[in-house]
Amino acid sequence: MKLVYGGSGCGKSAYAEDCIMKFQASARYYIATMKVFGEEERQKIARHQKLREGKGFSVLEYSENVGRAAAEICGKNAAVLLECMSNLVANEMFQSETPKAPDKVASKVAEDVLLLDKAAQSLVVVSNSVFQDGNIYDESTMQYIKALGKVNCLLAEHAEEVVEVVAGIPVKIK
């Protein structure tokens, strides 16, 4: 597993796709986690689809419970790109009126991703760095930031490689 993270618009998606393309795999999967709520999401999805154009990705949409995708890719010599943790964590955390506890969300998401890692030949996970602005937000946003931070830490522990993308430049952390 390779964890790729960075700020919004830093080039992490393009870098992650380049990584996946280097793997010799008989199948390439893109696991999309974004739920579409409006025009901003549609534009982001269109941009990412353009990036992937002609690269032979099969798209699997899992806005929650990404571990279920393991059954679809297992045994297929698969290279998998999972994008992205910030959407997945938000979807898992806020799927009901009462947000789930950050530690529970983080554990569940990390377990699901580890199932994917076992099923895939290669897995690249894209995440966001949303912790560095120093701002204090409302309680639910702070709980979300805590959950995403914990997911990133749990995945980094298990990842063979961790890369932060800064202004389009990949910086190897692990």
Percent strand equals 15-25%
Average residue-wise pLDDT: 90
Total separate domains: 1
Number of strands: 7
For the record, what is the CATH homologous superfamily label?
P-loop containing nucleotide triphosphate hydrolases
- CATH C-level class is Alpha Beta
Helix fraction by DSSP (H/I, runs of at least 4): 40-55%
State the end-to-end CA separation: 12 Å
Q: What string gives the helices and strands in order?
A: EHEHEHEHHEHEE
Q: What spatial order of strands do you see in the largest sheet?
A: 3-2-4-5-1-6-7
Kindly identify the CATH topology: Rossmann fold
What does this structure look like?
With 174 residues, the protein is α/β, with parallel strands linked by helices. The protein has a single domain (2-172), classed as P-loop containing nucleotide triphosphate hydrolases (Rossmann fold). It has helices at residues 12-22, 39-52, 70-73, 85-93, 102-119, 139-158; strands spanning 2-6, 27-32, 57-61, 78-83, 122-128, 161-166, 169-172. Strand 6 (161-166) and strand 7 (169-172) form a beta hairpin. The N and C termini lie close together (12 Å). 34% of the residues are buried. The model has no long low-confidence stretch (mean pLDDT 90).
